Amino acid sequence: MYAPKCLVIVSRQDYIDTFRNCLGIIYTVWVENLGVPLETLVGNLVGCVLVPPPGGPQVRFSIGAGDRQALQPPAAPPMPVTHTSVHMLLRLLGIHNSVTLWCAVMSEHKVLLVSLAGARLSAVCRALAALMFPFRYAHVYIPLLPAGLAEVLATPTPFLIGVHSSLKEEVSELLDVIIADLDTGSLHIPPSVNIPRPEGKLLSSLQDSLALVLQPELRSADSAFAPPPPVQSLPQMLDKEIRAVFMRTLAKLLQGYRHCLTIIRIHPSPVLTFHKAGFLGARGLSQCPFAVRLLDSMFFNGLVAERGPPWRPTDIWDDLVLNLPEQLRLESLNSDLELSHIQELAMQLHYNENPNPQIFQQRILRPPEGAESRIHQPPLPTLCAARVQQVIDERAATNNLEKLQAIRLPAPRIIPPAAPPTGAVELTQLLLTNSARRLEVLRSCIAAIFECRYADARKSFPAVLRALRAPNARTALVNDLASRLPTNKHILHHHQFDLIVRYINFCFSLLRSQGLISC
Question: Could you tell me which residue ranges the UDENN domain spans (predicted)?
Answer without folding.
Answer: 1-314
